[in-house]
Amino acid sequence: MVDFDVVVVGGGHAGAEAAWAAARLGAKTALITMERDAIARLSCNPAIGGLGKGQIVREIDALGGLMGLATDRAGIQFRVLNRSKGHAVQAPRAQADRNLYPAAVQDLLARDPRIEIIEGVVEKLVTVKQSGRGPAHRIRGVVLVGGLELTTSAVILTTGTFLRGLMHRGSEQSVGGRIGEASSEGMSGVLRSLGFELGRLKTGTPPRVHRDTIDYDACTIQPGDDRPVPFSFMNDEITQRQVVCWITYTNAAAHDLIRANLHRAPMYTGQIESTGPRYCPSIEDKVVRFADKSRHQVFLEPEGYDDERVYCNGISTSLPRDVQDGIVAQIGGLERARIVQYGYAVEYDFVPTEQTKPSLESKPVGGLFLAGQINGTSGYEEAAGQGLVAGVNAVHALGGDPPLVLGRDEAYIGVMIDDLVTRPPTEPYRMFTSRAEYRLLLRSDNADQRLTPIGRRIGLVDDARWQRFERRRDAIAAIETLCARSRIAGVAVSTWMRRPEANPESLAAAIGNSVGPTFAQQDLAQVLINAKYDGYVSRQADQIERFRRLETMPIPTDLDFSAIPQLRIEARERLARVTPHTLGQAGRIAGVTPADVSVLWVFLTKRSGRGDRTGSTAQGCS
């Protein structure tokens, strides 16, 4: 029997961030994984970031997490997406080396002596029953296959696609969470025995082809940025060699072949009954749902410097091997390509998130936290963001400190977790910029300004990162002061720099940077971005302040929704199931209308004796 402060089960992206965060806050942490070398493995596309996702990675980094640091070490092609559009929807993305990325994460974890990595499989959660209105059970430890027991008061489950994972390729079926790795067969039963309801989801992956069998002349080259932009605020530049990707397309012949074999596709034969990701569909789904399209884009993305495999992004499939061979052979540039790993789908259990608090602690079992795909999300970045929050809150719970709950106006991570607990996903949840109502505030460029002070306050941000943040903050403030004092062509620089033609070089000249203090280009660029969004941000700040009157109005944990007769039956049932902590959360629950929120607001104000002093604005919360 070995005692730990925090035990993390699963070594994926959520597990790695959870262990890192817990240890950084001083907790003696165990990270349990089936295979040490599989920690932070890129099981699908070896890419980090993208629209909505890149913002999350910057936020993880700003808070003191791992993912940005590892990506900067392992990235082989960096691109800022939507560069021609506004900064609110721009997002960094990097193709990463499949071997270098997990090696970077494993190296960073190994540097913290408070993290002990244990190879094994958890077969039992040790709990004690409780009475009263709180959780029915409380965690006391875990037992591994073979009998080793670890005692702890905080466990974080980050099991990914491994809960009763079942892989499909045509009529072929095999047990596993991903190719070459076993599934966790017993944990689902353990969770059910503790009162959890489980659901089932599906995800998939495309074939990989050998890089030497591609006709690149028939494809369109897709280079990275000339000056790669790092993910981490701790890095100024990317120095390693960069590679190119390629673009090709499916065609009518490939689509005809897919249609002719739908009777062999697990999604259409009934072999797979669970729901897949709507926004990342298989190629067979695309052909059926978008029958009017004559072609679909396929990105050919190298999996590493020395890796023979090229990832065919855009043709995720669970069709049989012979059909996959035929589809690939129809695609321009891939006529003679050899598949080295066939695509497949995987079904897995997850825990619907009405059973989870905003802190990511489970409701049925105190001290048990859930992060990653077990919460119904899809993607490395979404998992990592949850892992960091779960790691922080596991330690906070041990010390009786309030949980870290990021607001929807503070971080994409906050938007994601709020979405999960108020609108439990029925399909794999993926982050998009459109999910954030305050995306003008939540830009990838200002994640450090938004979140590094929070990371410092809770203890995740070390002295080196804080000193770097302070230097950048002070430089930005100094530039803004010079802008307020300077003029160009008779116009105040603070006004001129909102113009489209303003750039860091011209701003430096306008404030006399050549004869005064020398400012870094990224700091000058940040001042320009801040200036261009200043008016929009001010308006959003006013909206946020008005909304917070409802958002922060607490709902007592002992409130019996069935005792509010004016509420509709559906609203009572949904509110009782989710148990929102605030009126704002209640308004975002599926099935709860603005009228229901008004009823709840009136009830709560009367109960608290506040009458109508706050002003009834509940109709605006939906």
Describe the structure.
The protein is α+β, with helices and mostly antiparallel strands. The chain is globular and about 75 Å long. Residues 610-622 have low confidence and may be disordered.
- Describe the strand arrangement of the main beta sheet, using strand numbers: 16-17-18-19-15-20
Biggest beta-sheet profile: 6 strands, antiparallel
> C-alpha Rg, in Å?
25 Å
Round the mean pLDDT to the nearest integer and report it: 91
Instruction: Return the CATH topology of the largest domain.
Output: FAD/NAD(P)-binding domain
CATH superfamily of the largest domain: FAD/NAD(P)-binding domain
CATH structural class of the largest domain: Alpha Beta
Record keyword descriptors for this entry.
single chain, 622 residues, alpha+beta, FAD/NAD(P)-binding domain, Elongation Factor Tu (Ef-tu), domain 3, Arc Repressor Mutant, subunit A, 4 domains, six-stranded antiparallel sheet, five-stranded mixed sheet, 19 helices, 25 strands, 35% helix, globular, disordered C terminus
Short summary:
The chain has 19 helices and 25 strands. The protein is an alpha+beta fold and 622 residues long. The relative contact order is 0.13.
